[in-house]
Design goal:
464 residues; Alpha-Beta Plaits; four-stranded antiparallel beta sheet
Length: 464
């Protein structure tokens, strides 16, 4: 794998991939508004011979870039949305590039570039060796709100794919086999009748009262939901002033669990709570489902393929300046022992390779890659793109995703993606083994998209 055509190609194009990832870092865009990033990536892939389509008209920042024809069909799942409010300079103290602006605190700029580089490299090896098959780059927006891939799955975009590979920036090089949660993301909007709260309160119907009663009811509901289901909320709008009976209020909920079924069950019961609150207050409730996704299923056959690629290629090494940068960032981070990784927590930056680990583990964070993993064999792996103690969604992580540390992790990931994809292209027995494992894991269950057909992605117009 180390000396393959695809891996060598990544080395050749490394400067342009670093420039691509830096360009995306310099132009952060939040979910559903990734017009610059998606166009930049489409242009890069088109220039390298890929055919570009936009398969979901309602989701203009999603795209598919394809090269080759027929089977096998190997997919590379890229993301490129940023997080609101995480603008950060590449330095060891918190300081935004632009106060209040978005920033790549999850490293999706690195994901966009790494998967693009891998696609170009796999194409090169397929051409040189005359290999049959299709390599497909999936441009997946809005992962940070857990819906981009779900809308794409609902549209059938992933149909016919044999295997899917995904890299995500991390603080270790390895494959975490834990399951991430399924989730529903929903806003309850209460509509009442406005009136003067002192002079004529009897004429009003308080939407604020309805929202409060709903939250009280949800907290009583907690006692009677299955163990392991998490229910959390924030009231985003509670009224304009104390002397006005509020005619609008909104409360926003997340429901998370290890399996999809209890999410759906608690979601239905929570709707009943909202309806009850509306009845008690003489108001009307609007259920605004923002989205939902399935828990992740990590395919161990694909994980082993990724491990082989990592071991063959070898982990990046770091300069003394990079280690000092990482150590300074560590000093500003919560001093977490990071027990799941089972490594010395005092290190500045991780420099090894961990094979598949944490099998049977579970975390309440979520990713919309879970929906893809319920459609076909899928694996997500991580490479070091930050100092060891940095958390995703932190200013420290953003300070690394635009730094050489993040770029080294991106290039390593591109090589691993390319090597693993070529291995799957050329090894039908391994693809079959991955499929058999996936079928066993699914155990006859069928994927049902958690977002109903009448719910459309939020429309964000492109900048003028």
């Amino acid at each position: 794998m180390k000396d393959s055509i695809a891996v060598s190609r990544i080395t050749e194009i490394a400067p342009e991939l670093c420039a691509l990832s830096q360009d995306l870092w310099d132009h952060p865009e939040i979910a559903f508004s990734e017009y610059y990033a998606s166009q930049r990536l489409k242009d890069y892939l088109a220039q390298n011979g890929f055919s570009i389509t936009t398969p979901v008209p309602e989701l203009p920042t999603a795209f598919v870039a394809t090269w080759g024809s027929g089977s096998p069909r190997i997919g590379l799942l890229a993301e490129y949305d940023a997080l609101p409010g995480f603008s950060q300079k590449t330095q060891t103290t918190e300081d935004p590039v632009s106060p209040g602006a978005a920033g790549h605190a999850c490293g999706h700029n690195l994901m966009g570039a790494a998967h693009a580089g891998a696609a170009v490299a796999v194409k090169q090896e397929m051409e040189d060796r005359n290999l049959p098959g299709t390599v497909i780059y999936y441009g997946c927006p809005a992962e940070e709100v857990l819906t981009g891939k779900v809308f794409m799955a609902r549209a059938g975009v992933f149909d016919g794919l044999d295997c899917a590979l995904n890299f995500h920036p991390n603080v270790v090089n390895g494959i975490d086999l834990k399951r991430c949660a399924g989730i529903n993301n929903v806003k309850f909007k209460f509509h009442g009748t406005v009136s003067h709260a002192a002079a004529r309160p009897f004429d009003g119907r308080s939407a604020s009262d309805a929202a409060e009663l709903m939250n009280v009811g949800a907290n009583y509901l907690r006692e009677h939901i299955p163990e392991g289901v998490r229910l959390h909320y924030v009231t985003t709008s509670g009224g304009r002033a104390p002397n006005i009976v509020a005619n609008f209020a909104e409360t926003w909920y997340h429901i998370r669990a290890r399996d999809r079924e209890p999410v759906e069950d608690v979601y239905k019961r929570l709707i009943d709570v909202a309806k009850g609150a509306a009845l008690m207050t003489g108001t009307r409730v609007e259920v605004d489902l923002q989205g939902g996704c399935y828990p992740t299923l990590q395919n161990k056959v694909l994980a082993e393929t990724v491990r082989e690629a990592m071991e063959s290629i070898g982990a990046p090494t770091y300069t003394e300046e990079e280690k000092a940068y990482a150590a300074a960032l560590n000093a500003s981070c919560p001093q977490s022992p990071r027990r799941a990784y089972k490594v010395d927590p005092s290190i500045a930056i991780f420099e090894g390779i961990k094979g598949p680990f944490n099998e049977g583990g579970f975390a309440y964070n979520a990713s919309d890659i879970g929906d893809v993993s319920h459609l076909l064999p899928t694996v997500m792996f991580g490479t070091v793109c930050s100092n060891f103690l940095s958390d995703l969604h932190s200013w420290q992580f953003a300070a690394c995703t635009g730094h050489s540390i993040g770029q080294k992790g991106m290039l390593f990931a591109a090589k691993v993606l390319a090597a693993a994809a070529v291995k799957l292209m050329t090894d039908p027995q391994r693809r079959q083994a991955a499929l058999e494992e996936w079928k066993e894991t699914m155990d006859g269950t069928q994927y049902l998209c958690p977002i109903p057909p009448e719910v459309m992605p939020p429309v964000v117009k492109p900048p003028v």
